[in-house]
Amino acid sequence: MKLTPVMEKYILHWGEMGTRWGVNRTVAQIHALLFLSSRPLNAEEITETLGVARSNVSTSIKELQSWGLLKTVSQMGDRREHFSTMKDPWELFYTIMEGRKQRELDPTMTVLRECVLESEIDNETPEEVKARIKDVLEFMETLDTWHDQIKDLPKSTLLKLIKLGAKVKNFLGKT
Amino acid sequence: MKLTPVMEKYILHWGEMGTRWGVNRTVAQIHALLFLSSRPLNAEEITETLGVARSNVSTSIKELQSWGLLKTVSQMGDRREHFSTMKDPWELFYTIMEGRKQRELDPTMTVLRECVLESEIDNETPEEVKARIKDVLEFMETLDTWHDQIKDLPKSTLLKLIKLGAKVKNFLGKT
DNA sequence: TATGAATTTCTGTTAATACAGAAATCAAAG
DNA sequence: CTTTGATTTCTGTATTAACAGAAATTCATA
């Protein structure tokens, strides 16, 4: 697939950002490419367009799939799998949030619960520390609940909620 | 500073999580240590407690400071600087959000705006691609506005907003 | 301004990660 | 059962990041 300079810029930047999010450059670049592409691409096309190793593409596709970011499309008369991704930034955002929740929030809450349990019986962890850990756990549980509540809301509702946020601020600002 | 097994577990886990967020392990561990600590610690104490190189602590402290996560405290009769961090998870969360916004959202919006401008005049970027990039930019601007609106809200107000979110969901669910 | 303690910067080493290319495995169609 | 194309796994290399120790710098105090 032929990239225009702007598409290249977009993809390269996305790749850089990816490294800040704990996914490697190639993974982020592939996602950006599929996001811009008007049609599903197969692994070979991705390899050629981005100029990375075929094997790298294979690994990265698996990674993107584990995030639930890829749709796999079979085309008539072509054995090769073709990949595409969601075009709606909101949907994308949610999917990534879901992934982060599973990879970061859930395991952390598990560890924190263990910490709370163990500190109840170890007779050496200071009360202050116990309380602090409980605070973090509670905070994360609130985030988790919130995530649960909004994860299925349609985009339009979410936008309303955001505007609501603004109103609450204005209201509170005047009192 | 002496760590109990639970504190150690907490700090080690936080370090692991740090690597998923683009900060290195030591940075995250130092932050976790200061978070649990009942008093500000100096660089030497941090070094001994975590068993990492003194120079590493120095670099990591600078990194944490650049995120606005450290308070520096001078103690009477002690030339050394002592460091502490916020104890309120919400405040912490906001501070990190602010940092991420500056490091990720802001530069990305800049690049996207450049992409939009350049694609207006390059006569080669497909309309579809232009639209897609604009969508992402618009999405990020919405996030940015939202961030602006809620960043100064007190914790209590935010909690109310979250509960409101639940109500909106329930309401919509019934119609 | 000289001194000494503390911090920061510099340098070399080690460890971890990203990556390409080759080899092996798998799956569908004839 | 074989062929063909695709994916996955394996292996070696290169790049990046983490780290320790040494050197240099900073800064408060005398």
Question: Can you describe this structure?
Answer:
The first copy, chain A, has 175 residues and is mainly alpha-helical. In chain A, a hairpin with a 2-residue loop joins strand 2 and strand 3. Chain A has a three-stranded antiparallel sheet. The radius of gyration of chain A is 22 Å and the shape is extended. The first copy, chain A, has helices at 5-20, 25-36, 43-50, 54-66, 89-121, 127-150, 155-174, and strands at 41-42, 71-75, 78-84. In chain A, helix 1 (5-20) packs across helix 2 (25-36), helix 3 packs across helix 4 and helix 5 (89-121) packs antiparallel against helix 6 (127-150). The mean pLDDT of chain A is 88. Chain A has seven helices and three strands, in the order ααβααββααα. The interface between A and B is large, with 59 and 59 residues. The structure holds a DNA duplex (30 and 30 nucleotides).
Biggest beta sheet summary of chain A = 3 strands, antiparallel
Quote the distance from N terminus to C terminus of chain A: 57 Å
Content-based structural category of chain A: mainly alpha
Tell me the fraction of residues in β-strands of chain A, as a range. Answer: 5-15%
> What overall form of chain A do the CA principal axes indicate?
extended
Q: Could you give the order of strands across the largest sheet of chain A? A: 1-3-2
pLDDT averaged residue by residue of chain A: 88
